Amino acid sequence: MTETDTAKLKKFLAMVDEASEIAIVTHMHPDGDAIGSATGLFHYLESVGKSAVIVLNDRCPDSIAFLTEGAENHIRVYENGKDETETAICGSDLIFCLDMGAFDRAENLKDALQKAGCRKILIDHHLNPDTGSFDLVFSRTEISSTSELLYHILMSAPEICGDAGKLPVRTAKALLAGMTTDTNNFANSVYPSTFRMASELLAAGTDRNAVLEELYHCYRENRYRLMGKLLSERMKITPEGVAYMVIDKALAAEYDLKDGETEGFVNIPLGIKKVRMSLLLKEEEDRFRVSVRSKAGTSANLCAKLCFNGGGHELAAGGKLLKGGDLPENAGRKEAEEYVLEKTRNFLTDAN
Ligand code: 5GP
Ligand code: MN
User: Fold this and answer.
1) Whose CA is nearest to atom 20 of ligand 1?
2) Nearest to 137 by CA among 113, 155, 153
3) Contacts of 255 (CB under 8 A, 6+ apart)
4) Residue whose CA is closest, atom 14 of ligand 1?
5) What pTM was estimated for this model as a whole?
6) Which residues are CB-neighbours of 22 under 8 A, at least 6 positions away?
7) Are 286 and 323 in contact (CB under 8 A)?
8) Predicted local distance difference test score (pLDDT) of residue 4
9) Is 291 in the pocket of ligand 1 (CB under 6 A)?
10) What is the Cα–Cα distance from 19 to 64, expressed in whole angstroms?
11) Dihedral angle at the C-alpha atoms of 161, 163, 164, 165, nearest 10 degrees?
12) Nearest ligand 1 atom, CA 29
């Protein structure tokens, strides 16, 4: 840790020490890094005698629910009760926002976050975080994940003192899982510090095989049936090298698709040499959620920002297309595909 990090760490420890009710918030549609960092922090706070609650906009997908083990009774979800989440956020005296650069990434929790007068700490690895909304900011983009950033922070805490073996076992497992999912199992956004983290955790006895088993060998069959259908029938590739696939509501219903079951799909077309950028669109009631991935030299972040009301990281980003806004009110797959085709063509033409 650098000198400024040391000063920040002192502040972090003092703020935790002075707090009695702590809320941990992460982004909507939580992924492995969001849930891994949130539960990792939860178990650390519990180990130092603090009362904490994890507040989510929407429920944790079944595919990563194993990460919530031991924290089940300390999770509040907006979808299940607006009042409970508002009370949890506004009744706390310290709020952590993890893996999200701005309040609006927590969708419906945004108002409560704005209203809450307590101190707020950001721990995040996205581009352009809204630092003005926080009293203390840990923001690094040259890092694999929020889970990794949190790992380095906790390793500097006096009771851990650089010894990964002193982290609560559940914290170690959750942070390893969060880093693993955000790097797509060490395929992207990996830095020397990422391998250091993995090495230290393995040396401390963290069960990586159990994490891999839970993350990659426990899906339902439907995920792979849908993957086949998408790749063989739905994937389109533009002359500019943009691959895109749209999952509309009918297809999702046909395959009984649940949140989290398309994890990683968007990366697959990048295996094709001529593909520079890959997009996956998923239809919801009022919008299409968009995932964007790119190869070096093409900015997924800029494309998400300019074409899909979003952002993220240079090579992995996301956004949305609103029906009755970007698209006609009754837009379906065809309109979404046309939009993608035109916008990405303009984006790549302007970028060159
Ligand atoms: P995913 O495609 O896995 O949902 O998201 C990829 C990355 O983009 C993640 O780091 C995620 O936080 C970010 N991201 C996804 N959707 C949005 C969005 O609507 N706005 C912003 N700013 N970032 C997003
Ligand atoms: Mn992340």
Assistant:
1) 310
2) 153
3) 222, 225, 226, 229
4) 318
5) 0.96
6) 16, 45, 50, 51, 52, 53, 92, 93, 94, 95, 96
7) yes
8) 62
9) yes
10) 29
11) -120
12) 4
Residue found by looking up tokens 């899982």 in the block: 177
CA 154 to chain centre: 20
Protein residue whose Cα sits closest to atom 24 of ligand 1: 318
**Pocket of ligand 1 contains residue 319 by CB under 6 Å:** yes
Residue 351, pLDDT score: 73
- Nearest atom in ligand 1 to the alpha carbon of residue 319 is 19
pLDDT for residue 3: 56
Q: What is the pLDDT of residue 20?
A: 95
| Ligand 1 near 331 CB (within 6 A) | no
Is residue 69 a contact partner of residue 63, using CB atoms and an 8 Å limit? no
Per-residue exposure over 131-145, b if at least 16 CB sit within 10 Å of its own CB, e if not: eeebebbbbbeebbb
185-219 pLDDT, tens digit each = 999 999 999 999 999 999 999 999 999 999 999 99
Which parts of the chain register pLDDT below 50?
A: none
User: Whose atoms come closest to the Cα of 305: which ligand?
Assistant: 1
**How far is 262 from 279, CA to CA, in rounded Å?**
12
Residue 1 confidence (pLDDT): 59
Token pair, residue 22, equals: 């702590």
Query: How many angstroms does the Cα of residue 236 sit away from the middle of ligand 1?
Result: 22
